[in-house]
């Protein structure tokens, strides 16, 4: 039986290991060590206007770059929808970008590639019913629960 995947889906991190992993990845990325494409994403808050940062996995598919939100409609997703410009950082290198959110119908290929590369890290956020080898139908079904942004140089 499949979980509910919709535009309200949000997985909050309550697991201590997740919090430790996020801090470790962000710390290494801040030092200039990218773990399989990790970056520190900074986006202006939609209400405060202040910069907010979180570690993310930058995915490249056919030369195009994407940000996938495995936890669903998080604060960084909501902020990026309002302020479509952001920054990706590795060490001292900061890249400004623009983001466009993908329609659900355009997500299956990106979700599949994301799971192939990072299921070991983020698979728990997808649930037992979604894997890299899931059918196109399954990936379309879950697409509303996983925001995806195409990013281009700002």
Distance between the ends: 42 Å
Mean pLDDT: 86
The share of residues in extended strands comes to 25-35%
Question: Number of helical runs?
Answer: 4
Structural class: alpha+beta
The total count of strands amounts to 6
What shape does the CA trace take? globular
Strand order of the largest sheet: 1-2-3-6-5-4
Spans of 5+ residues with little confidence (pLDDT < 50)? none
Radius of gyration: 15 Å
Main sheet specs: 6 strands, antiparallel, barrel
Question: SSE string, helix = H, strand = E?
Answer: HEEEHEEHHE
How much helicity do the residues have? Answer: 25-40%
Write the layout of secondary structure elements.
Blueprint: H1 16-30, E1 38-44, E2 51-61, E3 64-68, H2 75-82, E4 85-90, E5 93-101, H3 108-126, H4 136-142, E6 148-153
Antiparallel strand pairs: 1-2, 1-4, 2-3, 3-6, 4-5, 5-6
Please explain how this structure is put together.
The protein is built from four helices and six strands, in the order H-E-E-E-H-E-E-H-H-E. It has helices at 16-30, 75-82, 108-126, 136-142, and strands spanning 38-44, 51-61, 64-68, 85-90, 93-101, 148-153. Strand 2 (51-61) and strand 3 form a beta hairpin. 32% of the residues lie in helices and 29% in strands. It is globular, with a radius of gyration of 15 Å. The chain has 154 residues and is an alpha+beta fold. It has a six-stranded antiparallel beta barrel.
